[in-house]
């Protein structure tokens, strides 16, 4: 008879060394700063060194001691039925996951962990809003053991690895994709953050003590002297560099493989490596994402729609479900077909039904309403400031700021109208073989190909304004991906007929049929 404690393993003992190294690095930086402050304050050098070195050793020893205790009291084991984790110290804590409920095994390693050959393994059930009770984290284990756990835990009981042979690489990184990164909305955000950082640093050296009005005047004069375009280009250049660096860190050594046993495996990352696995049998479709800038460059990103995708904890990031970063649209279409094991991408093969003109009117209203509200607020601010502006800013700068509402309305109205028309043109839905198609969005256009058998319910929404316009919103409910996918502002009769045809029998009992 086997012992109840048989088969338990410990975490990798190197975690003690990693904790000591990390605490030593951060403590050393703090010690240097503190030592300089104490020396400047007139404390004798010997006493300063004693305090700094003593504090450094105390912090490093404490961190290493805590991790040593964690290593001693934490154990785990994998059986044919369960994954078990035990923490036995002052309080005994035991957790386990049934093997058949495990849906995700993700492996990550930061630079220090990679240096010591370690990795962190997060095992979860893939529940939406996953809590700590449905997730077990092994932090850390050796890199080899992490890979063994990934393969072992995702293999189902009685499943043979030869049932579905692996096809090898589906896609691998091409450095030309990096130039799509600056086309995202992240670029201006990074540029604005860089400008803000410059002002923060300048304030440390006493350049931020002048009144706000003087700062605005200086900015306007600088823009007039060097050209507004130059100022904007400088901020965007910082954003471009930041977006490129972020792409390199996230997608370095990217590779999408189909492994034996019907497993899709994504590996990527420069400083922090990530290994994400997805069972094909849980795949219910794909989502092709096209932010505006990337769409204009004829590129797209491919995300997985699957049951059991982790929505909380370590998997809260949206890139967790990404199978392919922004890449040429033709390649994105090919990858979508490959992961679905289809001869042609359902999104490329299907024909979308356009939505009625009432949908365009609604989008024009939504786009212009916030523009008009902002315009009224700018006029109100200008009227409240009045001549008080001239007491802070010079006449030329004050005049430019007084004209700001009219400049805003002249730029914002055409932009809002164009976006409304683009959002209307993007609307569409249809059926492509065994997939339901739905497309929407302008700034971020999403095209969903969802298996019709994966739809478990329909929700029909119709507001008062939609009822007057003769349109409605269909929501396809599914256990995969986001859980629900909308088809907004479809014509009433056509939309209901589409829902009934996409999933026969699901909506039929609730439809009124005309009497013969």
Features:
globular, seven-stranded antiparallel β-sheet
Topology:
Layout: E1 9-10, H1 15-40, H2 45-73, E2 74-78, E3 82-88, E4 92-98, E5 104-109, H3 111-115, E6 118-124, E7 135-142, H4 143-154, E8 168-172, H5 186-204, H6 212-226, H7 228-251, E9 255-259, E10 263-268, E11 273-279, E12 283-291, H8 292-296, E13 299-306, E14 322-328, H9 329-339, H10 346-349, H11 357-385, H12 395-402, H13 404-426, E15 428-432, E16 435-440, E17 444-451, E18 455-461, H14 464-469, E19 471-478, E20 484-491, H15 492-502
How would you summarize what this structure contains?
This protein is an alpha+beta fold and 516 residues long. The protein has 15 helices and 20 strands.
């Amino acid at each position: 008879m086997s012992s109840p404690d048989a088969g338990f393993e410990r975490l990798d003992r190197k975690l003690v060394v990693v904790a000591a190294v990390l605490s030593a690095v951060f403590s050393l930086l703090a010690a240097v700063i503190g030592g300089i402050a104490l020396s400047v304050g007139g404390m004798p050098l010997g006493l300063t060194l004693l305090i700094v070195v003593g504090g450094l050793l105390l912090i490093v020893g404490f961190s290493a001691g805590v991790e040593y205790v964690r290593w001693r009291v934490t154990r785990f084991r994998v059986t044919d039925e369960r994954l078990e984790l035990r923490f036995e110290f002052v309080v005994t804590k035991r957790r386990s996951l049934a093997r058949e409920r495990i849906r995700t095994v993700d492996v990550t390693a930061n630079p220090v962990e990679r240096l010591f050959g370690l990795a962190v393994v997060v095992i979860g059930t893939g529940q939406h809003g996953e809590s700590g009770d449905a997730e077990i984290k092994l932090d850390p284990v050796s890199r080899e053991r992490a890979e063994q756990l990934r393969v072992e835990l995702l293999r189902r009981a009685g499943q043979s690895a030869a049932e579905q042979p692996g096809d090898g690489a589906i896609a691998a990184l091409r450095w030309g994709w990096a130039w799509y990164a600056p086309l995202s909305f992240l670029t201006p955000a990074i540029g604005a953050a860089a400008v803000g950082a410059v002002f923060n640093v300048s304030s440390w050296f006493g350049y931020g003590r002048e009144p706000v009005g003087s700062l605005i005047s200086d900015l306007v004069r600088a823009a007039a002297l060097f050209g507004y375009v130059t100022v904007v280009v400088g901020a965007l250049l910082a954003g471009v560099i930041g977006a490129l660096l972020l792409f390199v860190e996230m997608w370095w050594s990217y590779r999408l493989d189909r492994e034996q046993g019907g497993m899709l495996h994504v590996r990527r990352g420069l400083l922090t490596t990530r290994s994400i696995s997805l069972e094909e049998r849980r795949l219910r479709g794909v989502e092709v994402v096209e932010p505006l800038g990337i769409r204009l460059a004829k590129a797209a990103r491919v995300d997985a729609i699957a049951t059991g995708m982790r929505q909380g904890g370590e998997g809260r990031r949206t890139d967790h479900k990404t199978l392919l970063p922004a890449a040429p649209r033709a390649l994105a279409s090919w990858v979508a077909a490959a992961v679905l094991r289809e001869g042609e991408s359902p999104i490329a093969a299907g024909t979308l039904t356009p939505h009625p003109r009432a949908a365009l009117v609604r989008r024009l209203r939504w786009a212009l309403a916030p523009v008009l509200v902002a315009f009224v607020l700018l006029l109100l601010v200008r009227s409240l400031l009045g001549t008080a502006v001239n007491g802070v800013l010079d006449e030329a700068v004050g005049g430019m700021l007084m004209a700001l509402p009219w400049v805003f309305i002249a730029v914002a109205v055409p932009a809002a109208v164009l976006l409304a028309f683009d959002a209307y043109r993007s609307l569409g839905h249809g059926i492509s073989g065994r997939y339901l198609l739905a497309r929407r969005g302008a700034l971020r256009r999403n095209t969903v190909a969802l298996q019709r058998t994966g739809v478990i319910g329909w929700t029909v929404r119709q507001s008062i304004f939609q009822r007057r316009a003769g349109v409605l919103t269909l929501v396809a409910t599914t256990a995969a991906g986001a859980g629900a996918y909308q088809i907004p502002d479809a014509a009433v009769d056509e939309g209901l007929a589409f829902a009934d045809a996409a999933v026969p029998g699901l909506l039929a009992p609730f439809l009124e049929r005309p009497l013969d």
